[in-house]
Design goal:
The structure is a single chain. The protein is of the alpha+beta class. The protein has a domain at about 55-130: SH3 type barrels (Roll), CATH 2.30.30.830. It contains one helix and seven strands; from the N terminus they run H-E-E-E-E-E-E-E. The longest helix has 23 residues, at about 5-25. It is elongated and about 110 Å long. The N and C termini lie far apart (about 115 Å). Residues about 45-50 have low confidence and may be disordered.
Amino acid sequence: MNKKTLYCVFGLVCLISAPRCFAEENSSVYSPTGKRDPFQMPRRSARNPASEENGLFLYQIEQFELKAILKGAETGQILIADPKGKTYILKQGDELGRARAIVSRILDKEVILTEKVTNYLGNEGLTEKILSLPTDEPAGE
């Protein structure tokens, strides 16, 4: 065999075996399962329940103060302040407090929160707590 033929045979062997060698080294295959669709807008979460720096979940429900009720044609919202004075706007279905009480109803002058409780026997139940707007009457009357 001459040199030219030898190089051609060697080149063919390399070309044929190269894809198999690379496939064995990098045997992972991309799977889009569980990944975000790149053509959809990313969801922005204003309130992240896992975040402990969020004041909504650091305090008991009784420590919050209801500042205002914003009623719209379809749904209502509430303006609520934590003990440090930071305010949040919540709507029906949002969570509040350490026990993750849910804003279940927004009325004209109060908000009803539903909280899951567990008794000493381990039975779960629901309890309602009410946050009311402060009254405008002076304390002396």
